[in-house]
């Protein structure tokens, strides 16, 4: 009958309203929300030798995204991009020192610009970016340390560049490290993430 909504369409509208997405702009069952995550959340094999915390991925985090209908944008590993899988660098140089050179910074800022452009395009399509999820507190590329103004200098070099590129485009979202180096820190970060995903839209 004209004007009557079928059951599948009704379910899809309810799902969109629950997800906090603006239903008018969404053409199908997509929730319209996503997070940008560092490479190793989905693929631990990109980590430096000795640094993996899971055989494959941080499944608990992905499960939360799945349960809440939130998409995941995977950002390439800045260390692999700048230094290769072996993290090649002169003897006696730390990964942080190798990334914090003109060439290393340029590699991180080029990557940040390309990720920020992709995010901007997704936002223009009507999606909403909820957060950028980074890494462990000592990660040279992806650590997140911040105060009320934004990321601090001890943050990973890629994270700093990404926040700068996003802000240049008028995009200001929470950055949070998913600190899987310890179960206690990870539990705290996953709780923060759960709260973020289930918060009612302002
Ligand atoms: S640089 Fe970032 S993406 Fe790459 S392994 Fe380290 S934390 Fe993960």
Describe this entry's structure for a reader.
Strands 2-1-3-6 form a four-stranded parallel beta sheet, sandwiched between helices. It has a two-stranded antiparallel ribbon with strand order 4-5. α6 packs across α7 (157-168). It has a single domain (28-198), classed as Rossmann fold (3-Layer(aba) Sandwich), CATH 3.40.50. The protein has helices at 7-19, 39-42, 59-67, 78-83, 95-99, 102-124, 157-168, 183-198; strands at 33-38, 71-75, 128-134, 146-147, 150-151, 175-177. It has eight helices and six strands; from the N terminus they run αβααβαααβββαβα. With 202 residues, the protein is of the alpha/beta class. It binds iron/sulfur cluster.
Low-confidence stretches: 1-23
What is the CATH first-level class name? Alpha Beta
Protein structure class: alpha/beta
Question: Which architecture name does CATH use?
Answer: 3-Layer(aba) Sandwich
Order of helices and strands: HEHHEHHHEEEHEH
Q: Would you count the extended β strands for me?
A: 6
| Rg (C-alpha, Å) | 19 Å
Termini separation: 36 Å
Compounds present?
iron/sulfur cluster
Q: Trace the largest sheet across and list its strands.
A: 2-1-3-6
How many domains, as an integer? Answer: 1
What is the mean pLDDT?
Answer: 90
Instruction: Give the fraction of residues assigned to helices.
Output: 40-55%
Q: Please name the CATH topology.
A: Rossmann fold
Q: Outline, from the CA principal axes? A: globular
Give the biggest sheet: 4 strands, parallel
* Count of helix runs: 8
Sheet-strand content, in percent, reads 5-15%
């Amino acid at each position: 009958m004209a004007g009557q909504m079928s059951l599948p369409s009704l379910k899809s509208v309810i799902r969109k309203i629950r997800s906090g997405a603006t239903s008018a702009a969404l053409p199908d069952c997509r929730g319209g929300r996503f997070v940008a995550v560092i490479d190793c959340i989905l693929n631990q094999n990109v980590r430096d030798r000795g640094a993996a915390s899971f055989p494959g991925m941080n499944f608990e985090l992905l499960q939360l995204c799945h349960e809440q209908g939130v998409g995941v944008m995977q950002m390439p590993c800045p260390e692999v991009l700048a230094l290769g899988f072996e993290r090649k660098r002169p003897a006696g140089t730390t990964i942080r020192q190798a990334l914090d050179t003109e060439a290393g910074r340029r590699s991180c800022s080029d990557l940040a610009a390309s990720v920020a452009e992709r995010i901007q395009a997704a936002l223009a399509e009507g999606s909403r970016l909820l957060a950028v999820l980074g890494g462990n507190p000592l990660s040279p590329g992806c650590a997140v340390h911040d105060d009320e103004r934004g990321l601090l200098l001890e943050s990973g070099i890629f994270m700093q560049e990404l926040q700068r590129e996003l802000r240049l485009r008028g995009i200001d979202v929470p950055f949070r490290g998913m600190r899987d180096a310890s179960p206690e820190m990870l539990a705290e970060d996953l709780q923060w993430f759960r709260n973020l995903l289930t918060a009612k839209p302002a």
